[in-house]
Amino acid sequence: SGLAYTAIPASCSFCRAWVSNAGYSGTALVGGILLMFRRRGTRVGTCTIGICLLLSCAVLVRNFFGLFMLLLMGIILLLCGWKASDFWVSELYATLAATTCLNAITSIRVLYSPGSATVGGVVSTTDASAMQNATLIPYWVWATIWLLLASICTIIGVIVVLEPPPDTTRFEQQTSQDHNVEEQRVQSLMETELS
Fold first, then answer.
1. Which of 48, 139, 140, 168 is the most exposed place for a label (fewest CB within 10 A)?
2. Where do the DSSP E strands lie in 47-193?
């Protein structure tokens, strides 16, 4: 959970709904996409995440703690993506992807309570309650939609990266070819001995 201040006018219900929806939907979608690229592109993905963190510092972040932590994480991700072994880059990337997906699932429990929540000592309306106020659809419907979306994205991301079953036909073809070559070699040897 987090708290974001926006410059959205109070009269724009669609804008408030868009921002309230973006956190959970965006986290679920990005996490699922990151999981799908777990098999290839982890080095580029890790460096890209690091660059995005650094760019967010330049454009969005305005407090010392946020700047310090995001700059540190961005630099570490860039260095790991550039210099670490393939194994460690892959593990780091998988951890980031899984954490992103699971964050959308684990932080949803707050949304099933109506009204407000306290984040960082500030009492504010939950995203689900803000969506209810903007759309007149009950908060629990929005919380359920976000939970289902996060679960589906996580499941799809995991299914995409599962190891396929070993291709035994290729092994059988190679074995058959090796056997044929061996037979030809033996036959050639026998013919040379007979002549």
1. 168
2. 116-119, 122-125
Three-state SS sequence of the chain: CCCCCCCCCCCCHHHHHHHHHHHHHHHHHHHHHHHHCCCCCHHHHHHHHHHHHHHHHHHCCCCHHHHHHHHHHHHHHHHHHHHCCHHHHHHHHHHHHHHHHHHHHHHHHHHHCCCEEEECCEEEECHHHHHHHHHCCCHHHHHHHHHHHHHHHHHHHHHHHCCCCCCHHHHHHHHHHHHHHHHHHHHHHHHHHHC
Shortest CA distance to 42 belongs to which of 2, 9, 90, 79? 90
CA distance 27 to 146: 10
CB atoms within 10 A of CB 30: 16
For 135-165, write each residue's pLDDT tens digit: 889 989 988 998 898 888 888 887 876 665 5
Using alpha carbons only, give the angle 4, 7, 13 rounded to the nearest 5 degrees: 90
* pLDDT tier for residue 53 given thresholds of 50, 70 and 90: very high
pTM for the full predicted model: 0.67
| Count of C-beta atoms within a 10 Å radius of residue 128 | 29
